[in-house]
UniProtKB/TrEMBL annotation:
Entry superkingdom: Eukaryota
GO MF assignments: [pyruvate dehydrogenase (acetyl-transferring)]-phosphatase activity
PROSITE patterns the UniProt entry points to: PPM_2
Matches recorded under Gene3D superfamilies: PPM-type phosphatase domain
Residue intervals passing through the bilayer: none
Every PPM-type phosphatase domain range: 102-457
CDD domains hit by this protein: PP2Cc (cd00143)
GO cellular component: mitochondrion
InterPro entries with a match to the protein in the record: PP2C, PPM-type-like_dom_sf, PPM-type_phosphatase-like_dom
UniProt source species: Terrapene triunguis (Three-toed box turtle)
Descriptive protein name: Protein phosphatase, Mg2+/Mn2+ dependent 1M
């Protein structure tokens, strides 16, 4: 699929003609070199957040009260504490209209208007945490939902039948096709999951093309939630997190992907394609970085096939820098990147080498499904999506305690979900004390960008 539509709507054209005309935008794309995406905050914050750095300050921004988000969703964000010039987080909240794809139907439509009821309507929220600059997160926030819409439309017949058909075109090559589908236990939600996985992959490819064309670098994590046909699909590629907070329980709906959590996948790729390490790294994991005196000694190690630990005799090759090194938030992939899944980073190389990080960085998300019909949703049950700036400070249980207490104390406030999002960001940001940001207990607060969605779920399966 061509990215001309994206370029026309989101890249600086540089045209000397009327900048607002479609013709000048088109000429800008066709006749001039591509430029970086325009930096801006999420559309729903327009008029509220200028996006400019305020020295020494970290104001919290929320959507204006007279322009509420879908489902009365709460949202809040704050920029980092001088970590970078820009807030590298981005967010999207919109409806997605999924229609049957007519033969000859043009793709180039104003797909930002995604609220028609011609067929299926989905509800979409997403957070993108950029690194190495905001560009990849900006592209993803403007493009991933279009990729999802397109991929769902390509398989729409497969997600509206009680059982996905073997052939979308209605052919019956083998009379036993329905039986084979049933034996594989393929359900509607599996087709939706496949569409989401393909959408992430296509978005990643477009980001790579645009970043290369504009001579930009960087990437982003991506966490997306899609409500469709009574089910909530949470797709995660990175270290942002989604949790469902209920009165008596906390249900994790995503898992963080870091070099530590994906050690075996990454080591196995290095085993299968050793040339990717360029003789500079070892795929083996050791409790610490080995030294020359360790050669000939038997030490603890792990390889891709091992969940436990074994012992091996150290060879000189084992003294190379580990493929995965560090612990906790300090763990790095190839000494470079702190996440193992995400979008972009196609141009990222290990410093002072030609070793590419991207082969080890997967863009495929893990998708978890929450079926509203299988759970009795109560009034104060909410889905919380947040970037890692929040989770560096709050655990799932601490988050749930704040959510329950706040909603219980603010039952009559029509803006309580927005205020809850603000409260969560404020808690993780802390307060300024001299040159530091601290929490109430004087421990360090989050210095990272923080973005939070609070999505109320009560009776949504009836209303949508």
């Amino acid at each position: 699929m061509s990215s001309v539509w994206f370029k026309k709507h989101f890249l600086r054209s540089g045209s000397a003609a009327n900048p607002g005309s479609a013709e000048s935008l088109r000429r800008g794309v066709e006749q001039q070199l591509p430029a970086a995406p325009l930096y801006r905050r999420p559309k729903f914050l327009r008029g509220v957040c200028s996006g400019e750095r305020l020295p020494g300050r970290r104001p919290i921004y929320c959507p204006p009260r007279d322009k509420p988000l879908q489902w009365r969703t709460g949202y809040a964000e704050v920029i980092n504490a001088e970590k970078s010039e820009f807030n590298e987080d981005q967010a999207t909240c919109c409806q997605i209209s999924v229609r049957r794809r007519e033969i000859g139907m043009e793709e180039e439509q104003d797909w930002l208007i995604l609220c028609s009821n011609q067929y299926l309507v989905g509800y979409y929220w997403a957070l993108f945490d950029g690194h190495g600059g905001p560009d990849a997160a900006i592209i993803a926030s403007n493009y991933l939902h279009y990729c999802i819409k397109q991929k769902l439309e390509e398989v729409v017949e497969g997600i509206t039948e009680a059982q996905p058909p073997m052939h979308l075109n209605g052919c019956c090559i083998c009379p036993s096709d329905p039986q084979f589908v049933e034996e594989k236990q393929i359900q509607q939600e599996d087709v939706v999951i496949g569409a989401l996985e393909n959408a992430f992959q296509e978005c990643d490819e477009v980001i790579g093309q645009e970043m290369e064309a504009t001579n930009q670098s960087g990437g982003c994590t991506a966490l997306a939630a899609l409500y469709l046909q009574g089910k909530l699909y949470v797709a995660n590629a990175g270290d942002s997190r989604a949790i469902l907070v209920q009165k008596q329980s906390v249900v994790p709906l995503s898992s963080e992907f870091t070099p530590e959590t994906e050690r075996q996948r990454i080591q196995q790729l290095a085993f299968l394609c050793p040339k990717l390490l360029a003789e500079e790294f070892t795929r083996f994991e050791f409790p610490r970085r080995l030294k020359g005196n360790d050669v000939g000694q038997k030490v603890l190690y792990r390889d891709y096939s091992m969940a436990g630990w074994g012992y091996k005799t150290v060879e000189k090759a084992d003294l190379k820098y580990p493929l995965i090194h560090g612990h906790g938030k300090q763990t790095r992939l190839l000494g470079t990147l702190a996440v193992s899944r995400g979008l972009g980073d196609h141009q990222l190389k290990v410093i002072d080498t030609d070793i590419e990080v991207k082969p080890f960085l997967s863009c495929i998300p893990q998708v978890k499904v929450f079926d509203f019909a299988s759970c009795n949703i109560k009034e104060d049950d909410v889905l919380v999506l947040a970037t890692d700036g929040l989770w560096d400070i709050l655990s799932n249980d601490e988050m749930a305690q704040i959510v329950r207490s706040f909603l219980d104390e603010n039952r009559t406030d029509p803006y309580r979900f927005s205020e809850l999002a603000r409260c969560l960001v404020h808690t993780a940001r802390g307060k300024k004390n001299g040159h530091q940001w601290i929490l109430d207990g004087n421990s360090p607060a989050s210095y990272d960008d923080i973005s939070v969605f609070v999505i109320p779920l009560y009776k949504r399966d009836e209303d949508c």
